[in-house]
Design brief:
CATH class of the largest domain: Mainly Beta
Radius of gyration: 27 Å
Distance between the termini: 55 Å
CATH topology of the largest domain: Tachylectin-2, Chain A
Largest sheet: 10 strands, mixed
Strand content: over 45%
CATH architecture of the largest domain: 5 Propeller
Shape: elongated
Structural class: mainly beta
Number of strands: 38
CATH superfamily of the largest domain: Glycosyl hydrolase domain, family 43
Helix content: under 10%
């Protein structure tokens, strides 16, 4: 597409389209492919599918059928007979039982190269119509198995209809719940309409998904209605885009070979995202407020902890959607105020026999760095799928880089003890320790880890018996301090601080260290970690979660400075503060 036309379009769009969608909210173009370079679509953005892929479709996908020319992407569907390289004599499978390929086409996607959570997704295209033809522009979630990863069909055509679909997961594997709307091509204007280019659009944010064709609303569904059967929401994660031209199969209908060859023409694909106050650099902490990442999305790193490595802080925490565990996210920051979403560092496994299969519970993730092995080691509290909180296990994963991906090592009960809420601590000598709630949360235990931090040793001791959880341990002036929470489910309660001269005790209670409004309820929060500030002496941040059990994704964070004046340890409420309190 001509660059001058692009500029004119964006100028008009910025002053008209954006204001209509979100009032004062403005958008910025974050990615596009205008297909201006002749030849194969840009491999920096696109991956090519190969072979018979899904839905019993009749075409064989191959790279050769996607060609950029004169500022357009052309995906050609043509009759082309050749041997099927995946053919297996006697096979009952729909794909491998076909001795020959009869038709070829292309399917391209941005998986692993480009993905986005929320935004405006657009395609300007001219689609061929007729019996058997099935062009589409759609998205899939980056994590999870279909349909529980979520599918959005921004543009889909078959059997005379334009469709706008959204799919979520059900209790039955590979069976989707569909939210679908259709309009017939005849209703839109018939062949004369189909012979022109049209604009398909999705507007997707934390509240709803809306699908349009030529600014006419096709389908709109609130996100709260789009949860999977297990409570997770696949539209609270990044999605990647797909462009394909299918033939026949379960939906395309009877193939009319007189329509072949057929060409699906794409002028451009564009993705915009909101640009609001969250894009401005923050310079303060506001406990309990919504805390956004670089995309303007609320940080999803609950029950977590932070490490500092080579000039950067890395924040690991539970990825939550609805009421379900979705893995461990990682964010990075140079200043602790502004956070960049890096990736899902650790995900549940697709293997139904794995300890960490989808449906398990992952809580309280913490990462430490092993100076000897040069590995990043992740520990978390694991509950096995379908067992509630009966398993009470510790789990370990490892990575070569701070952002992962982390590889699962094993899960177990430390020295046979139940292990629920937990934390990690590395002492000045490099020895690492796992502190954990045990015995139905009536015991708090500490165990020294092996030299590689991947296993526990036999040096495992009961610290004290009390109904406590959410341990957060730190060291100051050669003394060890420990914040804990009472056990009241998701409801907040009174914090307690303990002190000891030795990690294995004896530990002495110092009572409730919180001061200010709702201090007796830990400011409506629960401890998770104490963060030492790099480069500042005696500077620690008390980190807590303000849980929202009915929408865990929206749970908030309470960060407050630890006051160490006059030999006492306390945490006082502040509506807003910054790191200058440690000067």
């Amino acid at each position: 597409m001509n660059r001058l036309l692009i500029f004119a379009y964006l100028f008009t769009f910025a002053f008209n389209g954006f204001a209509q969608v979100a009032g004062k909210t403005s958008y910025k173009l974050v990615w596009s492919d205008e297909f201006e370079k002749d030849g194969t679509p840009d491999a920096k953005y696109w991956t090519f599918e190969e072979g018979f892929q899904r839905n019993r479709e009749d075409q064989w996908y191959q790279q050769a059928n996607a060609v950029c020319k004169d500022g357009m992407l052309h995906i050609s569907l043509r009759k082309e007979r050749k041997p099927n390289p995946t053919y297996q004599k006697g096979s009952k499978d729909w794909a491998t039982s076909r001795q020959h390929i009869q038709y070829t086409s292309s399917s391209i996607n941005t998986l692993g190269k480009k993905q986005w959570q929320y935004g405006r997704f657009e395609i300007k295209a001219k689609i061929p119509v007729g019996s058997g033809l099935w062009p589409a522009f759609w998205t899939l979630g980056t994590e999870g198995e279909w349909p529980s990863n979520g599918e959005i069909d921004i543009m889909e055509y078959y059997r005379g209809n334009i469709l706008a679909n959204i799919a979520t997961g059900t209790k039955d594997r590979w069976k989707a719940k569909w939210f679908s709307k259709t309009k017939s091509v005849d209703e839109l204007g018939g062949k004369a309409w189909a012979d022109k280019f049209h604009l398909w659009r999705m507007d997707w944010d934390e509240h709803e998904i809306a699908l349009y064709v030529d600014d006419s609303l096709m389908n709109k569904v609130p996100l709260e209605q789009l949860a999977n059967a297990d409570g997770s929401n696949p539209f609270q994660q990044p999605h990647y885009v797909l462009l394909n031209f299918a033939l026949g199969g379960i939906n395309g209908g009877k193939i009319d070979e007189k329509l072949l060859p057929a060409v699906y023409e794409i002028d451009y694909v564009r993705v915009y995202q909101k640009e609001d106050a969250s894009s401005q650099d923050a310079q303060t902490f506001t406990p309990g407020a919504r805390w956004n990442d670089q995309h303007g999305e609320h940080i999803n790193a609950h029950g977590g902890g932070i490490i500092y490595h080579e000039g950067t802080y890395y924040w690991y925490g539970e990825k939550r959607g609805g009421k379900t565990s979705l893995g461990v996210n990682v964010y990075s920051s140079k200043d602790l105020y502004n956070w960049t979403f890096e990736k899902l560092a650790f995900a549940p496994a697709d293997d139904p026999n794995s300890d960490i299969t989808w449906g398990c519970i992952m809580e309280r993730p913490k990462v430490i760095y092993n100076e000897k092995t040069k590995k990043f080691v992740l520990w978390f509290h694991l509950e096995l799928k379908g067992q509630g909180y009966a398993a009470a296990r510790a789990a370990v994963a490892v990575s070569d880089t701070p952002t992962g991906p982390f590889t699962f090592v094993h899960s177990f009960r430390p020295n046979g003890n139940m292990s629920r809420d937990m934390g990690l601590f590395v002492d000045d000598d490099g020895q690492a320790y796992h502190i954990y709630s045990s015995d139905e949360n009536y015991a708090l235990r500490l165990v020294r880890l092996s030299e590689d931090y991947l296993h526990t040793t036999k040096e495992d001791k009961l610290l004290f018996r009390n109904h406590r959880e959410a341990p957060a341990l730190f060291k100051h002036a050669n003394k060890y301090y420990l914040f804990t929470s009472g056990c009241t489910g998701w409801a907040p309660n009174r914090a307690e601080l303990h002190v000891a001269d030795n990690l294995f005790g004896p530990w002495k209670s110092l009572g409730d260290p919180m001061l200010g409004p709702q201090a007796q309820l830990t400011f409506d929060g629960q401890s998770t970690y104490v963060l030492p500030i790099e480069g500042k002496k005696d500077a620690f941040i008390f980190m807590a979660d303000r849980w929202k059990p009915n929408q865990l994704l929206d749970s908030r964070y309470i960060w407050l400075p630890v006051d160490l004046q006059d030999g006492k340890v306390s945490v006082s409420w502040k509506d807003e503060w910054d790191l200058s309190v440690f000067n």
